[in-house]
Amino acid sequence: MAVLKRAVAAAALAGLASAAPLVKKGDFEFITTVPYGDTIFSVGDISYLASTSTPVLSAASTHSLTTGSIVPFTVITTGDCYVSADFVSSTVQSFTEWDDVYSAGFLEGVYISSNCTGATIDPAVFTWAESANVTSLFLSSEFGSVDTGKTSYTVSSIYQATPIECGPYAVAISEGGAASFSLVYRLYQDHQRTFIMGVYPARDAIASFKGLPQYLTKFQDEMIPVPSRIYSWSDSRPLAGLRVAIKDLYDLNGVQTSGGSRSWATITPPANITAPAIQQIINQGGQIIGKFKTAQFASGADPWDWVDTQYPFNPRGDGYLTCSASSSGGGCSVAAYDWIDHAIGTDTGSSMRRPASVSGTYGNRPSQGMMSLEHVLPLGAAQDTSGVFARSPKAWQHFAKAYYAPDLHQDPSINGLEPLVINDTYVWPKKVYFPVDYLPVRNPAADALVQQFVANLTALGIERVNMNFTQAMIAAPPTVSNMSIWNGASSVLNGRTAWEEIGKPLTTAWAQMFDGRYPPLDPAHRNWHNFNEASVTLDKYNASLLIKRAFSDWMNYDFLGADADSCSEALWLYDIGTGGLPSYREEDLITAAGANATLLSYRPPTAKTTGASICSFAGCPDFTVQLGQVPYFSNVTFHTEMVPVAINVVARRGCDFMLFNLFAEMESRGMLSPVKTGRTPF
């Protein structure tokens, strides 16, 4: 990805070699200093954060004036021994073209650095700087003496040991000419209220992060600090420069993990370690920009049952559609903002798949055990997974293959399943099961999109097989056919984990701190005061793991089938979403719409169980794929709007990369499309 970005930037440089110089626009204004000592400022109508407490470069210079404040600067670093005016002009132009953080306002100062000893500079550069209204021009000491001619700005030399990345910086000049260069983050408004907080690296010895304690006063929205993509143009790591939001269940060193609960935040300190699932992103070059909202402790709470945290807003349709349950902030943030590339959520019962479906994004529940969940607040340790939201199948595939590393697979003793083996194949399954008890979906216009998707699969050589999944389950052994057995086992697995890891420590600590009182909690967790520990003993938990293993073996081997070439002999389809109907964030809106809206808990009357529950217990990969959009009449805007339509595709456990490859291939063939941000996905 970083290589691609550099290639794009290089093409821009070549095409813009004769471009006219940008003219500096927007006045600098200091706004405030945050508690960590970092600085918020604006250039024109855009707000920025500068990490002035930890500059990336402090170097001596020949500059004779102190700034008294920070100055927006553009840094251009090159290995060339001759720097021409065309190169400087086109480089700045490419910054503006390809980066949303950079603007011409950073031409207040320009620092040109060469790694070539004895480098020379085109005298026309000084003319360019004059025309761009630059007030300070710094040159690295490699240039030696230069004849600047008569200029209206100062020209100074910088003496540095190592170069810094190109891009926008905030520079302070102290007495004696010492220049400090600090990274800059653009502050974006979270107008959909999908985030708990924005975060940015502390750049300290323990690799911690800082939470940004600021919001936009006018709207009381969180401000999310987003780094310049230019900083990563020279980084060859696969996730370099990608901006990623994470669910407020994952520990991030230096930042509070609340799990959507003010009570939990009260009794626990900020994290002192970053979860391996998140550290993997950082190690691969990704940029963590914030923690998004979750239903309290990853429950499946309806929007109207969120209390501690305001429910996020879905940008799709009329703006009042549901974001679904616990990973809702992730799906709706990726749907809303093009300045986010991906979000990392969790899925126990449906918490990646349903938010992806209703937000018009791509999202996956991976094979159970695909990613370590150490230092992540659990809902059910034996059924929790880590998923990725994306806006295109190809971006999804690229991220996933860098993210899901074999050395981060979960210990099988946690999930009760066989050790995970991943097959990265481009051979497709022989057949796709079309379950007539789950499909067609209720909206005929949406079902036409489903039928076209199946036709596209058959065009790839995957045979459509109509079948009844409920009947297949009934014919299976009791651990599958008897729903009360495996549903009960699933409840034990989740119930024991949630109580032992969260409920018991929370209620005990709260009682000790507040004179025996019970903690304030959302409705889904108010029954912990009389929790029956005898219902989730360790013996029952271990017995439930055995039931899970038997169910998993049936689903993955007897039903889907193993195949040496394609990994999974078959695919299975179902709809986890709304079937092309709106589902609102307010219960009254759903009730008023009657048959023209739906609850997310809907189950087809011909189906024995919800499709979402199958892979939650069987451990198989279950991917939400966007197919299109259909119109509905909104009870909010009283206008025709569009609602996303998705389908869920299931394969055998361990076949995740085959699914990613399949959907990327379908995008290449025009069978699937990237989604847009905003009101409509297409």
Automatic annotation (TrEMBL):
Residues 236-493 form the Amidase domain. Keywords: Signal. It comes from the Eukaryota. Coiled coil: none annotated. SUPFAM superfamilies: Amidase signature (AS) enzymes. The keyword Signal applies. Residues 1-19 form the signal peptide. This is Amidase family protein. It comes from Calocera cornea HHB12733. The lineage of its organism: Eukaryota, Fungi, Dikarya, Basidiomycota, Agaricomycotina.
